[in-house]
Amino acid sequence: MEKHPKPVLFVLMFITLFSDQPVLSLDFVFNGFNSTDVLLYGNSDIDSGILKLTNETTNVIGRAFYRSRIPTKTPNSSHVLPFSTSFVFSMAPSRNKGILPGHGIVFVFMPNTDINGTSSQHLGFLNLTNNGDPNNHVFGVEFDVFSNQEFEDIDGNHVGIDINSLKSEVSHKAGYYDDDEEQAFEEVRLNDGKNYQVWIDYADSVLNVTMAPVGIKRPKHPLIYVPLNLSDVFEDEMYVGFTSSTGTLVQSHRVSAWSFSNSNFRLSESLITDGLPSFTVPETPFHRHRSFISGVTVGSFLILALIAMFSLLLINRERRRARERAAMEDWEFEYWPHKMTYQEIDAATNRFSDENVIGFGGNGKIYKGILQGGTEIAVKQVSHENDGMRAFLAEISSLGRLKHRSLVSLKGWCKKEKGTFMLIYDYMENGSVTPPTRIRPGYESEVSH
What we know:
Blueprint: E1 14-18, E2 21-25, E3 27-30, E4 38-42, E5 45-47, E6 50-54, E7 60-66, E8 70-71, E9 83-93, E10 104-110, E11 139-144, E12 158-163, E13 170-173, E14 175-178, E15 184-187, E16 196-203, E17 206-213, E18 224-227, E19 237-246, E20 251-261, H1 290-326, H2 330-334, H3 342-348, E21 357-360, E22 365-370, E23 376-382, H4 388-396, E24 410-416, E25 420-426
Antiparallel strand pairs: 1-2, 3-20, 4-7, 5-6, 6-20, 7-19, 8-19, 9-16, 9-20, 10-11, 10-19, 11-12, 12-13, 14-15, 16-17, 17-18, 21-22, 22-23, 23-25, 24-25
Transmembrane segments: 292-315
EC number: 2.7.11.1
GO molecular function, one term: carbohydrate binding
């Protein structure tokens, strides 16, 4: 862990006269902590200048207070002294998988430091037996990452004002108002391990709370701004500090720097926020996420399955072609490029519907058809019986060689099982399917070979 800057402590206590009443003023800045700066209770500890309220231990409380009580009221008066404090905190979930994070940190004023009887389930702040008791004389600003419906929490990531109770008087979703984005609200995740700076000011019975990620200048617009009279809550002297806890929900809670004053509201500017250690949990590399690994596994399986299926289709198609070629006669190889599939012709003629019959030839019916793509054709059936096969071969032998205005072009041929053959011509409206051997006398010179 990177070491924190050497602790710097400024403490100034002096007595002034105001309306004949002595007033004690207190100012301190801790840029890092040592054991003489704060009182530690429960699970709290100091490690390399960082105040650790809790670690990854279940069901513990950690508290840390300024080393003595501080004046919070004008002596012999109900007037509450103003105060301004700022601190940097971070909360990080456990690195152990399967452990849910919780609970949070509370900045507190308390009349005593005793943690006996305090429940670790409730931020180390109060317990159910004294919750809501006005004799508690406790005030806190909570940074809570657990939504407890029993205390009407607004969500599992909020800031709340607590007075003698675990139920917040006022609460707001954690975040800040960005001055550079026209006061747009930017939500933050309190326990993402990042360092957040908090500013809490109380004066003239008004409390405001502001927060932002470390490195961002204090936003002009506070997160919480509420009239609040603490005269019945504060005693003449109080302990000020932090409390936190874990239950079955576990995370670490740390404070890296802290300033406090009841006379100088600009003392927070003395906090050093550069070079603070980060406690963010390293993100799992994308390629090691379970979802990524599962996706790659499933995707690879599907790709292999598709390759296998495609290969099988190719093999079956080649086998089918091999069987077809094995059953082919010699003349078929010669005119193979002009062969059309029976399925194609069957679809074009609407399964050789009687409605598509446009005539009769010497060896069978002639059908009109439309190929996929819109080309109109005429399909002439040729029987294998008698001279049908001879006429069929004679006609396809002229493929591509004869052109005449009185003749329609022969596009190709088709063979169906059981010896049925078909000749496919371009369709000519009001024309005829005239075999190219029937050229009328006098047109030989117009025939192009």
